[in-house]
Design brief:
This protein has 9 helices and 11 strands. By secondary structure, the protein is of the alpha/beta class.
């Protein structure tokens, strides 16, 4: 029996190789359309929060004038891949958290006196700003990209669907049922639990780890009597 996965994000060649080497069939498409927004900074940013890879990529590709305002910025991030994108571009990483709630707790415990700029998308989750506002931590939000769901109905059933954001889960669930959801992180998994029969979460917040989790789960399931 052919096992087929659906990735709600177009995979890079090396990521596709992980599935091909596991002899799994797959379909991939971008469930979210990402549109970078013009970013204007009137002064240098001392402390910045980035919780998504999309926001990190926008900052890395921003005009030289914006880059100049960020060259001495201390970055507080969610996810290893998000941090790596910024680090590879020469930005200074202070904290890497598994999720937004963990990052908020760290900031409240160790950096409460600082003022933060939150670079995010138009559909950003509310948890982190709410935690910081409750602790009276100064926070300014800058929307650097817009994410638009691209709903699509699939006629075939998939053995697993890979999700990378809560918005991606809700967009897919509008037109499709979900048996097994494999999620990049706990926030995405929380949304998936509202729609899927079974939900599992990657060990690390990377696409590669999400794929590995799906492969491991499906292989183990296939060998069970």
């Amino acid at each position: 029996m052919v096992v087929t996965l659906l990735s709600t994000k177009i995979l890079a060649p090396n990521q596709r190789e992980l599935l091909l080497n596991a002899h799994l069939s797959f379909v991939d498409f971008d469930i979210l359309k990402i549109e970078p927004q013009q970013l204007l900074l009137s002064q240098a940013v001392e402390d910045a929060i980035v919780t998504s890879q999309n926001a990190a990529r926008v900052l890395v590709l921003s005009p030289k004038l914006v880059q100049e305002s960020l060259k001495n910025t201390r970055f507080y991030t969610v996810g290893l891949k998000t941090a790596q994108i910024l680090k590879d571009a020469g930005f200074q990483i202070v904290e890497i958290a598994k999720n937004s709630e963990q990052l908020a707790q760290t900031i409240r415990a160790r950096f409460k006196e600082r003022t933060f700029t939150f670079f995010c998308g138009n559909t950003r989750r509310a948890e982190l700003p709410e935690h910081l506002h409750k602790a009276a931590i100064r926070l300014e939000e800058k929307i650097v990209y817009k994410a638009s769901p691209q709903s699509k109905k699939f006629e075939q059933a998939f053995d697993a669907v890979l999700f990378y954001s809560p918005l991606g889960v809700s967009a897919f669930a509008k037109s499709n049922s979900i048996d097994l959801a494999v999620c990049i992180g706990s926030t995405t998994a929380t949304e998936a639990q509202k729609h899927a029969t079974t939900v599992i979460t990657a060990n690390q917040t990377t696409v590669e780890s999400t794929i590995a989790k799906a492969v491991h789960y499906l292989k183990n399931t296939a060998t069970q009597p």
